[in-house]
Design a protein that fits this description.
- About 70% of the residues lie in helices and about 0% in strands.
- The chain has ten helices and no strands.
- Helix 3 packs across helix 4, helix 5 runs antiparallel to helix 6 and helix 5 runs parallel beside helix 8.
- Pfam families: TetR_N (PF00440).
């Protein structure tokens, strides 16, 4: 277990860990085989600092995946999935998730060890998504016979496709993309009646 998970960090140490994780996301996105030294250089810290915080490269990668997963979970919570009207919650959550996934694409694309913190957080996010979809179904935004696990998979696919980046979408803000995703999820491509 890394020191970052063992006990709370002082503010300066927390900033250092945050800088390392942000640098790791940038560097590993460009070169998944990058060394700890390259990450330390990009973070503006000494190699010894990175090794003091993370015993080995895998510990850094696990911390990166966990940090990104926690940020994704916070993005969902910031959408007020339990209290906002379901359509509002879906839109807010989608816009928030697009921002986090865009910023942490490498870390969120890592396969999570089933026993890891990141996997547990992703499972909780999946449950939260079903809860919002149940609320949307109760508000008749989703057909009462719809398989919500399938709807969630479609929703995730729409998010993923939006994040792939289409040159035609350059400069489109996350609120507009979120509106497209929710409109497609709830109405498909069929004619509006």
């Amino acid at each position: 277990m890394s020191e970052t998970a063992a006990r709370p960090l002082r503010a300066d140490a927390e900033r250092s860990v945050r800088a390392i994780l942000e640098a790791a996301e940038r560097v590993l996105s460009a070169d998944p085989g990058a060394s700890m030294e390259q990450i330390a250089t990009a973070a503006g810290v000494a190699r010894t600092t990175i090794h003091r915080r993370f015993a080995h490269r895998q510990a850094l990668v696990e911390a990166l995946a966990s940090s990104a997963a926690r940020q994704l979970a916070q993005a969902v919570e910031d959408g007020r999935p339990d209290t906002a009207p379901p359509l509002v919650a879906l839109h807010r959550i989608t816009a928030n998730v697009l921002e986090v996934k865009g910023a942490w694409a490498f870390a969120l694309g890592l396969p999570a060890d089933p026993d890891s913190e990141a996997a547990a957080v992703h499972q909780d996010i999946g449950r939260r998504c079903i809860t919002v979809l149940e609320r949307a179904r109760a508000d008749r935004l989703i057909d009462e016979t719809a398989d919500l696990h399938w709807v969630r998979r479609v929703y995730y696919a729409l998010l993923g496709e939006s994040l792939q980046g289409n040159p035609d979408d350059a400069g489109i803000d996350t609120d507009t993309l979120a509106a497209r995703i929710i409109d497609t999820l709830l109405h498909g491509a069929g004619p509006r009646t």
